[in-house]
Amino acid sequence: MAFERKFQLVKAVLLKLEKKPMRWTPLLKAMIQECGSPPRLYYTLKFLEKNGFAEKILIKDKPHWNITPKGRELLKALLFDAKN
Domain with 16 in it: what CATH number? Predict the structure, then answer.
């Protein structure tokens, strides 16, 4: 996956997670709708988790993905870069 394409997907995922924590299936459906095809969501989430930009949390005993403060900073940088 090209570097630029990977960070477009990272930005899209973080934008969704910024609104609210999401479970896997709704997040995947949102990314399919946005990207037009199934993205490499599993690898993107693992990248975000490994680097501290997203985390798994439990809500009503069900795993959800959530953006971290570090992820919010990355998103802010990605959005700033897109404007310039």
Answer: 1.10.10.10
Cα 3 to chain centroid, rounded: 15
Q: C-alpha angle 44/20/50, rounded to 5°?
A: 30
Q: Against a cut of 0.85, is the pTM above it?
A: yes
Greater confidence (7 vs 68) lies with 68
What is the residue whose two structure tokens read 């990355």? 74
Domain count, the chain: 1
Structural domain span for residue 69: 3-83
Locate 76 and state its tokens.
């802010």
Backbone angles phi, psi at 58, to 5 degrees: -105, 130
- The string of pLDDT tens digits covering residues 32-79 is 988 777 678 899 999 999 999 999 999 999 999 999 999 999 999 999
**End-to-end Cα, the chain, rounded Å:** 23
